[in-house]
TrEMBL record:
Classification via InterPro entries: AB_hydrolase_fold (IPR029058), FSH-like_dom (IPR005645), LovG (IPR050593)
GO cellular component entries: cytoplasm; nucleus
Ranges where the Serine hydrolase domain occurs: 12-214
Protein name: Serine hydrolase domain-containing protein
Record carries keyword Membrane: no
Domain of life: Eukaryota
Amino acid sequence: MNGSKGYPNTGRQRVLCIHSFRTSGKIFQQQLQRAGLLEALSDLVEFVFVDAPHPASGPIPRDVRPYFEGPYYEWFTAESVGDRVEFDEAKMKASERFLMALLAQQGPFDGLIGFSQGAAMSGALVALQRSGLRAELSTLRPLRFCILFAGLKSRHPDHLAAFDALSGKVPCPSLHVFGDKDALKNPHCTELADSFRSATVLLHQRGHVIPVLHEPQLAIMRAFIQATASAPEPPPPDTHIPAPRGVVGQDDGAEVVEAASSSACARSQRQGHMLCKL
């Protein structure tokens, strides 16, 4: 197996890639390829791309249709009703069942990579597994990490219950990549990062996209992935002890990334995650 250019071959982790709203697994693959990440991480990651189980039920986003061919799919739909968010429950449950079955039947998987709506689903899946609130997930090997591009915290009641069960801090190493010009940055992207105990944030200067990462930023991402590969196996859900909200986690992933990127990153004392401005 060939390593990516300029990097030694150190073995690969198997990662499920969850695409954004009304796109597809193929489009997500193209987005990561155009950003240079498939090649840059090929020695560390085996990427597995899938389509959501629901065909797109409405207009395709204007930043998608001109640049990527269909078919297009979605994980869930929701709408704001007053101060509430109402989900299509049948669609959400079907997507959860689909992903849980995929993790069980095509696993084991080491981590998740998600973009936008896919990042919301990824964060929710990790929270559901670590909280023990989904028996189907609790029987699987714990996911080691997640990488979330332009993600937002799911407002579905079941997902919020999972985050709350973990005292608002999911005990899983997470890398959050979002743009300073992304309309979702505040509060959504930062809220998701703040919901993980050991979060590292790569803040780029673009909008709601998967950006090209140059060598210093790639080094941070690679160090994060390598740290999770060498970290001890995560404990099963019923044995972890949630950290109090606001306490910075000390697991291996966060420590190695911090050491590798001290010139580019600073620890956020308020939010308990590491911020790396690109």
